[in-house]
Write a structure and sequence with these properties.
By secondary structure, the protein is an alpha/beta fold. It contains 11 helices and 12 strands. The site of adenosine-5'-triphosphate has 11 residues, from strand 2 and helix 2.
């Protein structure tokens, strides 16, 4: 049996020590209702610098609602939300950004036909010359974008190419480097690997780790326990708007995390439903006891 706790990076072994510091962002019993729909309830979460906090959960579990509160899109309706230990209530994403909380949404806010360097500075362009002849400082923007991307280990052939020609994974990486350059302390990534293949997901995971190495606190939203376990220091699993699990890396194995995500009882119910459908041989499906048992990954687990 392999030891899944080793992970792919050295920092995981320090996770207990690094939680001694103060969290940048903290939720205490936080929740959100939309009218009489309670999307989120009683959630505790701490985000520390130099750590990747993974938020996992099925569709509708409340992941996006959680990050909307932290990123300033929505306000919490119960509990407390603290930044640097002080209670806050943001009215706009700009206020969150001013506190160093940057969010990379899955449908990245980029202009596909504009060059990579132009997208890197979108909304915060560098200019030169006095008013009223102030104009874009293209050379400095290109040079800075190139340097910043290289600092993160991202090498692109040509920063003049439209960002739309980059792969989804590369665009995510540019967005991460951009947030780091503009001084983010907390970086929120909403399902950055959801639409990506194995190889591109690996690239994005690498830059999540790179952002942590630069001292950021990363909130990584994902459906995928394998991706979470590759880079995560802390794991919070949401189910139907409440926190089902909150565990440090040292307290949970990949098998346990996968099992939490799979929801053994729900899979059993699904098996029952499938048994009503013609053509599905439920004898072939794993039994209830298999679904709630830890998932075997080693060769010995396969019959
Ligand atoms: N603006 C809204 N008004 C009413 N209900 C909402 C609103 N936004 C979310 N909800 C409800 O809140 C619950 C949580 O939704 P949320 O989008 O946070 O889930 P999620 O975990 O991000 O799901 P997914 O994986 O599908 O993105 C859902 O039941 C959803 O229908
Ligand atoms: Mg969502």
């Amino acid at each position: 049996m392999t030891d899944n706790r080793t992970g792919t990076h050295g920092a995981v072994l320090q996770d207990d020590a690094s939680t001694d510091g103060a969290p940048i962002v903290e939720l205490r019993g936080a929740g959100k209702s939309y009218g009489n729909i309670r999307a989120l309830h009683g959630v505790d979460l701490k985000v520390f610098p130099d750590q990747v906090t993974c938020v996992l959960g099925d569709n509708g579990a409340g992941k996006s609602t959680l990050i909307k509160i932290i990123s300033g899109l929505h306000q919490h309706t119960e509990g407390d939300f603290l930044v640097d230990g002080a209670p806050v209530r943001f009215s706009t994403p700009r206020e969150a950004l001013d506190k160093g909380i940057a969010t990379v949404y899955q449908d990245l806010a980029t202009v596909p036909l504009m060059p990579v360097w132009r997208n890197f500075f979108l909304g915060s362009e560098m200019t030169k010359g006095p008013w009223p002849v102030r104009r874009l400082d293209i050379a400095r923007m290109k040079e800075t974008a190139d340097r910043e991307l290289r600092n993160m280990g991202i090498v692109l052939d040509d920063l003049d190419q439209p960002i739309g020609t980059l792969s989804g994974g590369q665009r995510q990486c540019v967005a991460i480097a951009r947030a780091v350059y503009f001084g983010a302390r907390v970086l929120i990534l909403d399902e950055p690997t959801a639409a990506l293949g194995v190889k591109q997901s690996g690239v994005v995971l690498k830059y999540i780790a790179a952002a942590r190495e630069r001292g950021l606190g990363v909130i990584f939203i994902t459906h995928n326990p394998h991706h979470a376990y590759m880079v995560g220091d802390h794991f919070s699993v949401l189910r139907l708007g409440t926190l089902e699990l909150s565990a440090e890396r040292s307290d949970i194995t990949l098998e346990e995390l996968t099992n939490h995500m799979a929801g053994g009882a729900e899979l059993a119910a699904l098996k029952h439903e499938l048994s009503q459908v013609r053509g599905v041989d439920t004898e072939e499906l794993p039994g209830e006891e298999d679904l709630t048992a830890p998932v075997a990954t080693g060769p010995e687990g396969k019959s």
